[in-house]
Specification:
Layout (H helix, E strand, L loop, with lengths): L1 H10 L2 H26 L7 H17 L4 H23 L6 H23 L25 H19 L1 H11 L1 H6 L4 H27 L11 H11 L4 H25 L5 H20 L18
Helix pairs in contact: 1-11, 2-6, 2-9, 2-10, 2-11, 3-4, 3-5, 3-9, 3-10, 4-5, 4-9, 6-7, 6-11, 7-9, 10-11, 10-12, 11-12
C-alpha cells in the first residue's frame, strides 16, 4: 500500500498543483490564441513556430537590456506579424491553411535559430537572464505574473467572444461569412484581426517559457506544445473556459508522470510514464471530440460576393 499512499500524497500537495499551473500556462495561452483563429474560420498550424519565435524574441529583448514586460510586448508583436503573414496568405488569397501554417512554423522556427546564432555566434551554453519571480499572494499558489495574466486572459477572451460586438463578428465570420458580409462586416478584416490577435497570444505562450518558466532560450524548447494546443482547442469545443480546463488537465498528467517515475520508476520503464499524459489526452480527446460543434466555416476560404 506504499505506492497508493505516495500517489495520494502527491495529489494533495501544494507543490504538485503549483507545478501544474506553471506547466499549464503556455498551453492556456497557446490554446486561447488558436481558439481565436479557429473561431474566425482560420486554422493556424503556424503555432509551433510562432511560439518558438515568441520565446526567442522576448528573451532576446530582455538579454539586450530591455525590461521583462518589454520582452513580453516584443514577443507579442512578433507573433502578431507572423499572424499577419499567415492571414495574408490564407484569407484574401485563399491558399491552403494547412500548407501556409506549416510554412509559418518552419519560418518561425528557422528564423528564431538564425537570429539567435547571428547575435550569439560563439555561445556554447545559453546565456541567462533574470526572469519573472513568483508573486507571494495571500491564499494563492506562488506563480509568476504571466500565469495570473493567462488566467485573466481566459476571462477576457470569453467576455470579448460572447459579450461584445467584436466577439459576435468573430463568431459570425467563423460560422457564416456570407451573413456577416450581409451585415456590412468585412470578413477579411475580421479574420485577419483575429489571426493576428491569436498569434500574439501564441507568442506570449512561447515567451512564458524563456521569461518565466526558464531563464534562457535553447533550441527545441517549445517541444511540441503548439501541436498539443491545437488538440486542446478541439477538446475545449472552441470555448475559453473549457480550454483552461483542458490545459490544466494535460499539465496535471504531465506533472504527475514526473512524480510517478520517482514513486514507481523501478516497476516500469520510464518511457511508459512519458507516454502517459499523451495517451490520456488522446483518450479524453476521442471522448469529447465526437460531440464537439466546430465552426462551420473553419478552413473554408471566402471571397467577397460569394454565396
Amino acid at each position: 500500500m506504499e505506492i497508493p499512499n505516495a500517489i495520494w500524497d502527491v495529489l494533495v500537495s501544494a507543490a504538485f498543483w503549483t507545478a501544474v499551473l506553471r506547466i499549464a500556462t503556455p498551453y492556456v495561452l497557446g490554446t486561447l490564441g488558436e481558439l481565436l483563429c479557429e473561431r474566425a474560420g482560420v486554422l493556424n498550424l503556424g503555432i509551433e513556430g510562432i511560439m518558438t519565435l515568441g520565446a526567442m524574441a522576448g528573451w532576446m529583448a530582455v538579454y539586450q537590456g530591455g525590461g521583462l514586460w518589454t520582452g513580453v510586448l516584443v514577443a507579442m508583436a512578433c507573433g502578431a506579424l507572423m499572424g499577419l503573414l499567415h492571414a495574408s496568405l490564407t484569407v484574401p488569397l485563399g491558399l491552403s491553411q494547412h500548407v501556409a501554417g506549416i510554412g509559418v512554423t518552419l519560418l518561425g522556427t528557422s528564423l528564431s535559430y538564425f537570429v539567435y546564432r547571428l547575435v550569439l555566434p560563439q555561445a556554447s551554453t545559453p546565456p541567462t537572464i533574470q526572469p519573472f519571480q513568483p508573486l507571494d499572494l495571500p491564499g494563492a499558489l506562488a506563480q509568476t505574473p504571466l500565469t495570473y495574466l493567462a488566467a485573466l486572459l481566459v476571462l477576457a477572451v470569453a467576455y470579448v467572444l460572447y459579450r461584445t460586438p467584436v466577439g459576435l463578428a468573430v463568431r459570425m465570420v467563423g460560422e457564416n461569412p456570407a451573413a456577416a458580409e450581409a451585415q456590412g462586416l468585412s470578413v477579411t478584416a475580421v479574420r485577419v484581426g483575429a489571426v493576428m490577435a491569436g498569434s500574439a497570444l501564441m507568442a506570449l505562450g512561447g515567451a512564458f517559457l524563456t521569461l518565466s518558466a526558464f531563464n534562457a532560450f535553447f533550441f527545441n524548447m517549445v517541444n511540441g506544445r503548439g501541436w498539443i494546443c491545437i488538440a486542446l482547442v478541439v477538446f475545449a469545443s472552441w470555448r475559453p473556459g473549457k480550454a483552461l480546463l483542458g490545459a490544466v488537465l494535460f499539465a496535471a498528467f504531465d506533472a504527475f508522470q514526473l512524480r510517478l517515475q520517482q514513486i514507481a520508476g523501478g516497476v516500469l520503464p520510464y518511457q511508459v510514464f512519458l507516454m502517459l499524459p499523451y495517451l490520456l489526452s488522446i483518450l479524453a480527446l476521442v471522448l469529447v471530440a465526437r460531440r464537439a460543434a466546430y465552426p462551420r466555416a473553419l478552413m473554408i476560404p471566402y471571397r467577397k460576393g460569394e454565396r
